[in-house]
């Protein structure tokens, strides 16, 4: 997919949100595994002024109900694997307008043109709502503004020297800050090629190593790579940056 494809698809999805009655400042909770649709739903929220709330698909029904209620979610999107659990969690929620399958987003007619974009205040308008881990009590909602995302992304472009010539191995989950904001924002800002895997897999990562210039992961990923004999023999000279969080 090209960046033009992402632009067109996110605009089409933003138009669909408008037809569902969502407006700037409404909250959208997404419970799904990593996919192209996950990414384009996020981008559609950014261009619509809708507040994006990504949730870990391994959350229980009780946990999901808490997040939906606390976030005052207006629209929930779920994939097939989590649909039943999400349906059961999405009860007695006065703010909820709709529950939509991610398949509905996947099956949209993307040949239809949509230019759904609104102006937001970078400094003040909330772009995303994420939650703390809740180690000292219930998880706390954290508001991330458009300016938080753009200023962080531009700073990381500068520090990490991201360019459109780079090729990023992305094996992180998208519901987490690291995979969605910290590594994707600088990549998207400069047009880096993103080699996106559904999940971390040693063999698949190894197959991409010779193409890539950047990899982002967590310590467990690197431990598993270091235990692989191929990792020690492979030509890794093209990789300029390993990031760990």
In short:
This protein has 245 residues and is an alpha/beta fold. It is built from 11 helices and 10 strands.
Number of DSSP helices? 11
Query: If you compute it from the alpha carbons, what radius of gyration comes out, rounded to the nearest whole angstrom?
Result: 18 Å
Q: Report the order of strands and helices.
A: HEHEHEHEHEEHEHHEHEHHE
Q: How would a crystallographer describe the biggest sheet? A: 4 strands, parallel
What are the low-pLDDT stretches, counting only 5+ consecutive residues below 50? none
Fraction in helix: 40-55%
Helix/sheet category: alpha/beta
Ends apart, CA distance between termini: 27 Å
Lateral strand order in the biggest sheet: 2-1-3-4
Strand content: 15-25%
Count the E strands.
Answer: 10
General form = globular
Mean pLDDT: 92
Structure description:
Helix 2 (36-48) links the parallel strand 1 and strand 2. This protein has helices at residues 3-19, 36-48, 61-71, 83-89, 102-106, 146-160, 177-182, 184-190, 202-208, 219-226, 229-233, and strands at 27-31, 51-55, 75-78, 98-101, 126-131, 141-145, 167-170, 193-196, 214-217, 241-244. The strands form three sheets. Strands 2-1-3-4 form a four-stranded parallel β-sheet, with helices on both faces. Strands 8-7-9-10 form a four-stranded parallel β-sheet. Helix 6 packs across helix 8 (184-190). The protein is 41% helix and 18% strand. It contains eleven helices and ten strands. The protein is α/β, with parallel strands linked by helices and 245 residues long. The model has no long low-confidence stretch (mean pLDDT 92).
